[in-house]
C-alpha cells in the first residue's frame, strides 16, 4: 500500500499562522483585490506547509478498512435501534389490544385483588356492604354508583367488596365487566353470559337473542354485577334494556355496582345515592405512601426518611395515584 510520509517540523505553527492571517481584519491601507489574491496565496502556502510538516503517516488501506468498520458498526446500531422501536410499537399495540379485549378472562383478572391491603375507605366499604346485604326484598335490583376521579381507588374498593367471603356466599353469580368508553350492550350482555354460563356465545351478535339466553340463566338467581369504569352517558332506554333480564323472573336483591368518574352517569343509572370517593385521610395516606416508598422496610420507620416522607406526603393532598 502507498503511504504518505511527512517530515518533522512546525506543522502546528503553520496551521496557527494560517488561522491568524485568516482572522486578521483588513486595515485602511489594504486593497480588496490585493487582499483576495494574498489570501488565496496564503491558503495555498499554508496547505503546502501543513502537508510538508505533518509527521503522522497515513495508510490509505488501513484508513479505508477503519472507515468500513465504522460504517458496519453504525449499521449494526441502526438495526438495534430499529428492533427497539419495533418492540416498543409491538408493546403499544399489545397494550391497545389488551385494553380493547372483550374476553371474560381479562375481566376475571380485573376482579382479582392486586393487594389485600387497602388503606382507608373503611366507612365507604361498610356503606356498600350494608346496602348489598340488606334483607329488604322490595327491589329486584339495586344500582349503586361509586364516583371519584381517576386513580382515587374506586376499582380497588370494589375489588375488595367483590371478594368478600360474605358477598361470595350471598350471590349465586358474580359478574365483573370492564366497560370503559365504549358502552356496547351486545358485548356487555355476551360477557355477562360468559360468567353465568359455561357455554360460549361469541357467534351470537343479536342483542335480543343474547338477552333471552341471559334471562334463562339468571332466573331465580341472585346476581352481583360490577360495571367498572363507565363513561358513556347512555339514555334510559339503553340502560333499561341492558338490565331487563334481571327485572323479571329473577330473585330479588340483585346488585349492580357502577364505578365512574362522571357524576352524570351516577345520577342516570343509580337507584340510590352514589358513594363518593375523595382523597384519603392524612394518616391513611401516610401509610399508603410509606408502603409505596419503602416497601418491606415500611415498618422500620427510619427517622430521617419519615420526616422527609411526611413533608412530601403532605403536598400530595391524599391522592392515592400520586403515592
From TrEMBL:
The protein's name: NB-ARC domain-containing protein
A Pfam family it matches: NB-ARC
Region (Disordered): 1-57
Single Gene Ontology MF annotation: ADP binding
Coiled-coil features, chain-numbered ranges: none
Species of the source: Aegilops tauschii subsp. strangulata (Goatgrass)
Segments forming domain NB-ARC: 130-294
Record's compositionally biased regions (Polar residues): 47-57
Amino acid at each position: 500500500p502507498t503511504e504518505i510520509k511527512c517530515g518533522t517540523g512546525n506543522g502546528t505553527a503553520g496551521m496557527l499562522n494560517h488561522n491568524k492571517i485568516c482572522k486578521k481584519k483588513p486595515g485602511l491601507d489594504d486593497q480588496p483585490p490585493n487582499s483576495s489574491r494574498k489570501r488565496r496565496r496564503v491558503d495555498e502556502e499554508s496547505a503546502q506547509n501543513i502537508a510538508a510538516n505533518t509527521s503522522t503517516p497515513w495508510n490509505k488501506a488501513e484508513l479505508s478498512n477503519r472507515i468500513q468498520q465504522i460504517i458496519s458498526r453504525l449499521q449494526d446500531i441502526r438495526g438495534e435501534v430499529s428492533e427497539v422501536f419495533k418492540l416498543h410499537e409491538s408493546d403499544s399495540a399489545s397494550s391497545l389490544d389488551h385494553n380493547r379485549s372483550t374476553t371474560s378472562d381479562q375481566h376475571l383478572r380485573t376482579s382479582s385483588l392486586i393487594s389485600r391491603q387497602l388503606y382507608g375507605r373503611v366507612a365507604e366499604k361498610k356503606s356498600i356492604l350494608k346496602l348489598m346485604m340488606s334483607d329488604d326484598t322490595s327491589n329486584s335490583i339495586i344500582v349503586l354508583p361509586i364516583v371519584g376521579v381517576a386513580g382515587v381507588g374506586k376499582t380497588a374498593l370494589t375489588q375488595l367488596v367483590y371478594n368478600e367471603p360474605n358477598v361470595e356466599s350471598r350471590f349465586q353469580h358474580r359478574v365483573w365487566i370492564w366497560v370503559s368508553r365504549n358502552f356496547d350492550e351486545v358485548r356487555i350482555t355476551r360477557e355477562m353470559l360468559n360468567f353465568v354460563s359455561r357455554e360460549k356465545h361469541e357467534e351470537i351478535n343479536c342483542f335480543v337473542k343474547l338477552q333471552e339466553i341471559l334471562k334463562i340463566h339468571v332466573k331465580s338467581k341472585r346476581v352481583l354485577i360490577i360495571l367498572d369504569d363507565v363513561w358513556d352517558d347512555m339514555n334510559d332506554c339503553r340502560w333499561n334494556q341492558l338490565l331487563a333480564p334481571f327485572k323479571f323472573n329473577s330473585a330479588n336483591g340483585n346488585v349492580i355496582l357502577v364505578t365512574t368518574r362522571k357524576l352524570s352517569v351516577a345520577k342516570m343509572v343509580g337507584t340510590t345515592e352514589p358513594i363518593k370517593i375523595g382523597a384519603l385521610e392524612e394518616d391513611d395516606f401516610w401509610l399508603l405512601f410509606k408502603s409505596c416508598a419503602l416497601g418491606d422496610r415500611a415498618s422500620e420507620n427510619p427517622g430521617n426518611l419519615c420526616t422527609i416522607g411526611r413533608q412530601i406526603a403532605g403536598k400530595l393532598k391524599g391522592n392515592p395515584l400520586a403515592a
